[in-house]
Amino acid sequence: MKPCILAGCPPQETVLDPFAGTGMVGHVAEKLNRNAILIELNPVYVEMQKGRNAIKSVLDAGAAEKKQADKKNDGWLF
Asked: How many helices (H) and strands (E) does the chain have?
């Protein structure tokens, strides 16, 4: 994967993996300073991907945004 990513994607750009499986392409892309978009339909593989740092940071970022939105509401319903 590393030679393919280096040959086909400049630094700071995005790699698209439409059959992500366990997310190895995303993992290698992150190590090579590339972004990655992973697409996977099988929920078993999606769960495996959640253990990888790149996926965790995306999920954690979404959770942080939700917490900020919840704080803005301050318990008021309107």
From this structure: 4, 2
